[in-house]
Amino acid sequence: MPSFSTDTAAHGEDRAERASVTLLAGRRRRSAGANPLVLTPDDPFPDDLDGLDLVDLQVLHSRLCWQLDHEYLSLPGGADPVTLDRHQDVTAEMTRRRWPSSPPRPVP
């Protein structure tokens, strides 16, 4: 299973490129029966969202949204807390990139 941790000593393009390649590699290595449109709580998740380029962050957000929809419709207790936390982290990172001068707001 791929690791999403990034090297904290790396800077700039190299760091972002490694994080992006790692994320893409994780999507390609899913098992044959796995749904590539979702990110289950058991799937690997990046340790550092700041290292992802915008497209990979948007793909991650999309996969989490699909997973949340699935969980809300199929699990009696609602969405898994891991999925909810991941979605909140990705949404906060997207908000930070959109409005870099304002502090992140809590996601409802």
Would you mind describing this structure in some detail?
- The protein is mostly helical and 108 residues long.
- The chain has one domain.
Q: What's the quick description here?
A:
With 108 residues, the protein is an all-alpha fold. The chain has three helices and no strands. It has one domain.
Q: What keywords describe this structure?
A:
globular; 108 residues; mainly alpha; 0% strand
Largest sheet: none
Large-scale geometry: globular
Level of helix content? 40-55%
The average pLDDT value, as a whole number, equals: 76
How many structural units, i.e. domains? 1
| Topology, number of strands | 0
Number of helical stretches of at least 4 residues: 3
Instruction: State the separation between the terminal residues, measured CA to CA.
Output: 32 Å
| SSE series | HHH
Name the quaternary structure: single chain
Parts with pLDDT < 50 across at least 5 consecutive residues? 1-13, 15-22, 24-29
**Percentage of residues in strands:** under 5%
Rg, alpha carbons = 14 Å
What would you call the structural class? mainly alpha
